[in-house]
Amino acid sequence: MSLFADAQDLLFPARCLSCEALFGRHRLPLLCPDCAARLVPLTSPLCRCCGTPFVAGEDHLCGNCLAGKPSFDLVRSAYSYQEPLVSLIHQVKFGRRLTPLATLGVLGRNSCACSALSLPDLILPVPLHGRRLRQRGFNQSLLLARACFPKWKDRIAANGLKRIRNTTPQTDLSGRERRKNLNGAFCVDIRGGVAGKKVLVVDDVLTTGSTVLECSKILQKACAARVEVFTLARAL
Ligand SMILES: [Zn+2]
Ligand SMILES: [Zn+2]
After folding, report:
1. Burial (0-12, 13-18, 19+ Cβ within 10 Å), 93
2. Looking at the domain that runs over 39-234, which CATH code has it been given?
3. For ion ligand 2, residues whose CB falls within 5 Å
């Protein structure tokens, strides 16, 4: 096996998924040392609830979470949404290229964000709406959930969260419009429901947080015991 791997490295040297530079071995993550060094992991100090990063000090609750407990119990994102992560996520979402998933999975699994999560009873990927799902052919949040949580794969409910109406793509809207746009956009559709269960919601990127907030709201309404959110990246 190792001989085969050596031959493969010699004949087809690994290319960095971000800058395409040739570098050493085919070992995950497939990022050259320069690109790997540009990743910005989100680590303490963070808001103990929503995961907003602070410049200094210890973990504590941010002003928003102090003012009123959000509908989720914990949000953690692995990395800041910047290069090289942006291009890797774009390759999957818009280039429909699935090769970066294994790398994204390793990055997610090895992150502090991942180790902060409790063992969930259910993992629910944020759903795409029907039209977009048909265009893209897959839901990147589901693929990311599988890549980041292989040990919990039996707990992933691919269609546990559903879009009940098509919404304007969030990227075209401001923060307030985003919240309004998503009002009532999701429902829980899972046999046995989520009552009394610990649920982990998974999405690729957290931008304003309105999507995960809306998902958490309906899960809380459906009596989930705990709602945690994991996103691979977070726009800062
Ligand atoms: Zn590179
Ligand atoms: Zn907070």
Report:
1. middle
2. 3.40.50
3. 47, 49-50, 52, 62, 65
